[in-house]
Structures are given as structure tokens and as C-alpha cells.
Design brief:
alpha/beta; Rossmann fold; 123 residues
């Protein structure tokens, strides 16, 4: 897989740090790690990432809402991470969802699926 610029949206600092390390080990560049909906929207506008890895359940705002706001400006492939995939699936039936905890191979596969999406694809 080609190296991608990835924005990580995760409100658990240790998970964000570990996820960044895994993505870097996979050959990707993590352009930013942010913890809130508002910070995600701002970072996406500043860094113009190739893909978003977004915790669906943020303490400050919501991951799904952050993606909606980002997509209103431009399409960015995205993967939702969550401990409750059913809850996210009910909100976004066609979303790429990665249930926590997950392995590196599952992360790579989810990123690959997200990169196949187009602006016309379901969110």
C-alpha cells in the first residue's frame, strides 16, 4: 500500500499514540492526532489528509459528526473505530468500521476498503 497521510481522531491519548506508532510502522505519515470533533474538523482543513481514522465515540463532540462536517467540505476516505460497532452501523450502515480491539492486519484491511470509496459511495 502506498504511504498515506492519516489524521487520527482519538480521545484516549494512549490509544492515539499507539495507533500513530502502528500506522508509522506500516509506512504511513500521521499528520496529526486530535481528541475532539472541533479539532478534527480544523486539522482536516489544515493537513488535508488522505484518510481519517476516527473514534466514533469522542468525549468532546462525536466522531461521526466530525466526519460529517469534514465531508461537507471535501471527501476524505475514513474508518471509524469503536467498541460498539452496532451503534455506529445503525448510524452509518455502509461505513468502514473497525471494532476495538483490533490487529494491525485488520487496520490495514480497513484502510484499504476506505480508500476504495468515492465521493459517490455511501458514507
Amino acid at each position: 500500500m502506498t504511504a498515506l497521510s492519516i489524521l487520527v481522531v482519538e480521545d484516549e491519548a494512549i490509544i492515539g499514540m499507539l495507533l500513530s506508532e502502528v500506522l508509522a510502522d506500516m509506512g504511513h505519515k500521521v499528520c496529526a492526532v486530535v481528541e475532539s470533533e472541533d479539532d478534527a474538523v480544523e486539522a482536516a482543513a489544515v493537513h488535508l489528509p488522505d484518510v481519517l481514522i476516527v473514534d466514533a465515540g469522542l468525549a468532546a463532540g462525536g466522531g461521526v459528526a466530525a466526519v460529517d462536517r469534514i465531508l461537507a467540505c471535501r471527501f476524505v476516505p475514513h474508518v471509524f473505530t469503536t467498541g460498539n460497532a452496532l451503534k455506529v452501523r445503525l448510524q452509518r450502515p455502509d461505513a468502514v468500521i473497525l471494532e476495538k480491539p483490533f490487529h494491525e492486519a485488520e487496520l490495514a484491511e480497513a484502510i484499504g476498503f476506505a480508500m476504495l470509496r468515492t465521493p459517490e459511495s455511501p458514507r
